[in-house]
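Hi F.,

I've been meaning to write this up properly since the lab meeting, where we talked about keeping a consistent format for the predictions we share between groups. The idea is simple: the sequence comes first, exactly as it goes in, then the structure tokens exactly as they come out, then a line or two of notes. No screenshots and no reformatting. I'm using this chain as the first example so we have something concrete to point to.
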Amino acid sequence: MPLVVLCGRPGSGKSRRAAELREALGGPERQTHVVTEAEGGRSALRAEVERLLNRRDVVIVDAGNEVRSIRYELYCAARQAGTARCLLHCAGGPGRPDEPPFEAPDPANRWDRPLFTVSGEEPLPLAAIRAALFESRPPPPHRATRTQPLQSGDFLHRLDRVTQEVLAAVLAAQSSGAQPGQPVRLPGVAEELVLARPVSMAELSRLRRQFISYTKMQPSDENLPQLAGMFLQYLSRSIQ
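Output, unedited:
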């Protein structure tokens, strides 16, 4: 049934909020599952969410979900399952110099809404969360694939080209002697990719196929300027 995605900086109280949600949303008619970050990283987290999603139980993702590409993947998983979802942003947190960059959710992005934000000891807006999860009609799976063929075709062509260019840049940098920890400049995005280890062409191609399969669920022109950045974040989180 519904998916609740938590996001926030380390120390912002996500696990405490997940426990509150588990108690508030569970009951005799449904189970409530909490999925946390564990060994295996982002791919393992997504796989566990997809395994648990159904039309009855509640799945709560207790993880940082710092970048928009992670939240987008979970949005696509919920849409594919045909279930409602919402995002809970736990604001605050002490912050650490070594923590990953946090991309604050933006309700203008459909994968970041409905959005609820809490901080400190502020009570959860449980009535609004219940309404978003249990009283709203979930969007049908793959609804966006019924867009006009020209728009969809343009989007998929751009998706293929952008991801090809990013992969070519990564492979070229490695061939030129780029070492783990060195930033790699990528076309179409101001950020740089820092690889934790060498990556083969086979692994990069596999990650590209995975990213394309998720992104094709929602072909939309509004994503075009963000494709390279989303793919960069996907690679950054997947190559650890």
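Notes:
Residues 143-151 have pLDDT under 50 and may be disordered.
The first strand starts at residue 3 and ends at 8.

If this format works for you, I'll send the rest the same way.

G.
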